[in-house]
Each structure stands twice: as C-alpha cells, then as structure tokens.
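Page 37, continued from 36.
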C-alpha cells in the first residue's frame, strides 16, 4: 500500500519573508511594526482565498490601520518579491521524495504569489497534488482544503503525513485523521518521513 507526504510551502520548502523584505514593505507602505503586521495577518484570509486582489487587500489593510498608502502597487510588488526565496536543500529533498512516492503541496497562497511560485519553481507542477488556497477559494485550517489535497494524492488521510510550520494547521490535519508534524528543520523531519513511508511507501515501477 502506498503512503504519501503533503507539505506546506512557505516556512517549509520556500522561505518566509526576510528582515530585508519586511523593511522594504514598510518603506513602501509608509508605516510598519505591529500596527502593520498585526493587521496583515488578521485580515489575510480573503486575499489568500483569492476573493480580493492584492491591491485591494493592501488598501483594506491600510484603512484598518488608519493609514493611506502612497503607492499600493509598490507595496504589493515588495510583498510578492519577498516570497521568492526557496530553501534549496528542502527543494532537493522534496523532489527526491517525489521521484518514488506520492507527494503534494497544500498552501495558503493568493493569486499573485501563485503566479510567482509557478514561474520560479516549475518543478512543483510535477507533484501528484498541488492545492493553493487562491485557486480553490478556501484557506487552511478549513478541513475542506485538506480534503481537496488528499483527493489529488488519491490516498486516505491515515496514509498521508502532513508537514507544516504552523501548529494550527497541523492540528487541523490531525483532526481529519492525518499523521502530522510541525516542521522544525530537515534534520528532524527526515526520520519522521522515513518511519512513515517505510517499505510500503515505495512506488512500484
């Protein structure tokens, strides 16, 4: 019987925003700190689900924070650029797994960032299942988006290990019957993946 792995993207395979990116966004926005970033994360679901554009998201964010943006498009461009960095060691690891196992990605990504990763990381299209929130109109930790990703893998929840850097998303996966772990680095992940896959996880030719 086959087993598979489902990975979150950012904070696992792709790198989160760097301090330099955060500074560039704040410069473009004209304000920063908790006043910006608390609202940024608290109001992101509609954008990640593709229900509003990136430009509208930033205008909404600024209004909630009590600011106006000098150039919304410049802020959006700075943010999208900040999501461009891959962890090449993790990319190599996931691609290696995908050569013999069922592997997928499940990520909360808005349309502008989806376009970025599809352009810069074309290998993602070779995976068995790629599910982006901005394409399906749902965001983690909604159980429905996990079910979509599982459908793409063609495996029951108990046979798919889920890997994410956010505990709330890991708990949602466990709620569906998936074994799931919080990602804290490749060194700790390897033995967990090896134990999950075992001989039964090897794809037959």
């Amino acid at each position: 019987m086959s087993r598979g792995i489902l990975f979150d993207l950012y904070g696992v395979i792709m790198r989160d925003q760097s301090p330099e990116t955060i500074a560039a966004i704040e410069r473009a926005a004209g304000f920063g700190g908790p006043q910006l970033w608390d609202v940024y994360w608290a109001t992101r679901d509609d954008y990640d689900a593709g229900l509003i554009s990136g430009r509208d998201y930033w205008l909404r964010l600024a209004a909630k924070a009590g600011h106006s943006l000098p150039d919304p498009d410049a802020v959006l461009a700075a943010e999208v650029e900040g999501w461009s960095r891959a962890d090449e060691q993790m990319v190599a690891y996931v691609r290696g797994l995908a050569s013999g196992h069922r592997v997928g990605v499940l990520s909360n990504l808005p349309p502008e960032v989806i376009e970025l990763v599809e352009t810069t990381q074309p290998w993602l299209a070779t995976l068995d299942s790629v599910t982006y929130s901005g394409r399906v109109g749902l965001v983690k930790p909604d159980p429905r988006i996990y079910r979509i990703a599982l459908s793409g893998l063609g495996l029951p929840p108990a046979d798919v290990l889920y890997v994410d850097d956010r505990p709330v998303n890991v708990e949602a996966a466990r709620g569906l019957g998936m074994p799931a772990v919080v990602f804290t680095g490749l060194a700790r992940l390897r033995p967990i993946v090896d134990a999950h896959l075992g001989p039964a996880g090897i794809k037959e030719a």
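The radius of gyration is 18 Å. Flag for discussion at group meeting. The longest strand covers residues 102-107.
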